[in-house]
Amino acid sequence: MANLAATYQILLFDSYADNNYNSVVLMSDLRSDDIFKGGGDAGDQAMLYRLSQLDATPTEIPQGLWTIYYSGLARANNAVIACENAVGVTDERVAELKSEALFLRAYYTHWLWKFWGNIPYFTDDLPEPYMAPQYSADEIYDFIMADIDAIIETAALPMRTVAENDGRATLAAAYMLKARVVMYQKDEARYSEVLAEMNEIIQSEAYQLVDFASIWPREGEFSDESIFEVNHLPGEYGGKTWASGWAGYGTNLPAFISPNSLTEDTPDLLSGDTYYKGGWGFGPVRTTTLELFEAGDERRDASINQFEEGTYSARFQNTGLFMAKYAARVEYNEPPGDVDLNYENNLRIFRLAETYLNIAELIAVHGVAQGDGISAQAALDAIRLRAGVASIAPTVENIKLERRREFVGEGMRFWDLVRWGDGDQLTENLPDHSSVRTWTPQKKYLPIPQSEIDRTEGEFKLEQNAY
Predict the structure, then answer these.
(1) How far, rounded to the nearest angstrom, does the alpha carbon of residue 143 sit from its chain's CA centroid?
(2) Which residues contact 454 (CB under 8 A, 6 or more apart)?
(3) Which of 78, 97, 202, 292 lies 20 to 30 Å from 463, alpha-carbon distance?
(4) Number of structural domains the chain divides into
(5) Using CA atoms, how far apart are residues 341 and 325, in angstroms rounded to an integer?
């Protein structure tokens, strides 16, 4: 239990990973066409500007993610080993705990795999010199899938937990992680499995779509739509400090993405009883993202905040638009701890909406037979009905656009473009917003941190990615 708790703890750290501002959803969206880098100027968190320009280098990258997720991998290994050596515990309980550890190992590894591709991997305690062999991205995919397959085969996890276990891994979460990994790998041989599992989640009736705007305030945490989320807590429960990002329970993401010097009387119109706070002005939303939404789409104002000129201080690449889902709100970051690091906004990792949109995509885009599940039309209609907009045909274009609208600010867009082969859409020349970049297929992976290459030697010497 101690090892498993330590493994879950890693989920709380990525917004200030290894004392770097490397929230995984923001690091994903910065390479997309939904937001700009923002902040003070191009040199403010310069590595993030380079990331947004598809121009990262081995010494200017979000290295915190490498450190935090390898820490997660090591902790998950310890939890698995502890389960395998357990005595005096029922087989059923050991199977449940081991499945949770395998889920977390697969989840952490899948982020390393998506960002860097060809990475070191290990499942046992490393002997001296404490280095692991580097594997190809395809080999890493196989390792991830082996853990997910073991969870599903063991069948020890419930489809949904009871309330007191909110935040723990479930069978539905394993299915959702499998869908992301299989679809990113474009492993067509397993598409029918994924489709069946998406339908199983829906048919279980363990989860339901809820009012979109209600998901994001504190009252919406662990809603009926939430399949897996990170349970951040305000500083009063033990706060992060500038000296250490390896403690506490809160998140920095809300401060990072909220407008600078926002006036305190700016209301959160969605919840009606809280107010937005100012932050650092990173991640301004592009006007083209706002324009994606049809008239009456309830997701627009729940996803994007529009603040009037003069209510905040405009910063680099300003558009007047900011991400709303994880926005800083008054009373969401009580001390002790440094307040900007300790917001309580939970990070929603898997939502039922993704389940529906996976079904629509697998059938209508990839040609998987519908079988006994719902149709692509019904899946797409469920999402649009909830958003308050009319039914449209489940064409390739419409399904791709619906995913973009649904997941603004949730770190999905870049990875979707890559797996669809649509990365050319990221090439742009926008001098008015200081964004001039060119997509090439090798940009799929970031360069491996130079400091990590420098630590390896001999047979374990890391081979750098092309960049």
Answers:
(1) 20
(2) none
(3) 78
(4) 1
(5) 17
